[in-house]
Amino acid sequence: MSIDADLKAAIAVTRFGLGARPGEIDAARGDPVGYLRDQITPAGAEPPKGEFQSGAAAFTQLREYQIAQRDAKAAGDPKADPVKMAQKTIRETAELEFLARIRLACQTQMSFRERWSLFWFNHFTVAANQLATATLVGPFEREAIRPHVFGRFEDLLTASTLHPAMLLYLNQEQSIGPHSPLLTEPRFSAFAARGPRGLNENLAREIMELHSLGVGSGYTQADVTEFARALTGWSIVGPAGDRYSPGAKSGTFIFRPVVHEPGVRHILGQAYAQEGITQAGAVLHSLATHPATAHHIAVKLARHFVADDPPPALVARLERTFRQTDGQLDMVAETLIFAPEAWSPPQRKFKTPYEFLVSGYRAVGLAPTGLPQVGPTLTGLGQQPYNPPSPKGWPEEAEAWTAPDAIIKRMSWSEAFAAAIEPLMGQPAEVAAGALGARLTPPVATAIAHAESRREALAILMMSPEFQRR
């Protein structure tokens, strides 16, 4: 089915991107596909603007706070409470990181690139649901995700797995091989006597279930356990350094042979005889290039960009490119934007709360200046900043976001937002045309034209089915 240039330009900006800023649909009209293709770059996605700590520095600061608290308790100082200081610092840092990220989403001229990056950040979820990870979510996105979103999938999988945020979020730093030297050799008997310690399967399970193969792909619990054994030793350098790796930088990845489970691992019918860090690395390579991973990623991409029930033909195209290029994500992105199924006019994706607020700001050419303008609303709508409900990330399906109460809250925010920015907005008809282009239907245009005020007109636009969907 062919569609005219005006509608294709609107789809390019509002479906593949994060919503149209004034003039953006006009800019895409000459070559909508080329407009998107120009946003695919080997450098990945640009980071939010600001001077933020690295993940290594943030981790080190947290550990130093915890050490200070331990020492204060040991000294019997009732006034010292380093953890409260840490919580305040971490909360403020995370808020600044999230504000910078949503401002980037609202202002960028490369919103397909930004959406693509946000997809992968949600795919490799890390949540700020504990003190240890709250300070690391922003660095994780900047360091492990954004630089690799148009590179090889294997590099993205590896970078996310090695980052201290993921290792802490899924408790990998606690995992110890049951037959590792630390628990079996006499020289470590004092450590072994401290209490039961052993294997943690969280990271292995989520890599297989969520990050690579996907549910129902044929792996077993035995495969998860074997992969967890291969991953033992993957950890983080503490502030005091590491006795086995002199000079290792605090807050960075380290492999500790002393806690690694010895032996050959058997996963998905393949034996991994490699020793040390290379064993789990070899497993990651196999998972990244497995046919089931290609299918899992293809389904998720098609579901995110096009429909909750993704077109089988689009899934097949994406899967084929993934397999033929060994997971080269720039080529997968090109396949997506060239696929005719991705341009089908019906708007079948309902915006998440984050997408809704971002597209609202983009429609009027503005961005939030403080987290209170968006944070409480996102939390009230069920998408608390940096805090997805599980390692699965935020749900994609419309039913997760379309409860009657949620729609009422969207309406309340639209009205408040329209009232707040009314002095700054242009003529409602122009805003509507710039936001939706050829997707603006006559009934919505008429309702906007007959609105009693500019604020009412903007609220009508934002609550229209055309604006709520992409």
Question: What's this model, at a glance?
Answer:
The chain is mainly α and 470 residues long. The protein has helices at residues 5-14, 24-29, 32-37, 55-74, 82-107, 111-123, 131-134, 137-145, 153-162, 164-169, 181-184, 189-192, 202-211, 221-231, 277-288, 291-305, 312-324, 329-338, 353-363, 375-380, 404-421, 428-436, 442-449, 454-463, 465-468; strands at 234-236, 253-255, 265-267, 270-272.
Provide an overview of this structure.
- This protein has 470 residues and is an all-alpha fold.
- The protein has 2 domains: 234 residues, no CATH class; 116 residues, no CATH class.
- Helix content is 54%, strand content 3%.
- It is built from 25 helices and 4 strands.
- Helix 8 packs antiparallel against helix 9, helix 13 crosses helix 14 and helix 16 packs across helix 17.
- It is globular and about 85 Å long.
- The two termini are 19 Å apart.
Identify the notable features of this structure and list them briefly:
470 residues, mainly alpha, two-stranded antiparallel ribbon, globular, 4 strands
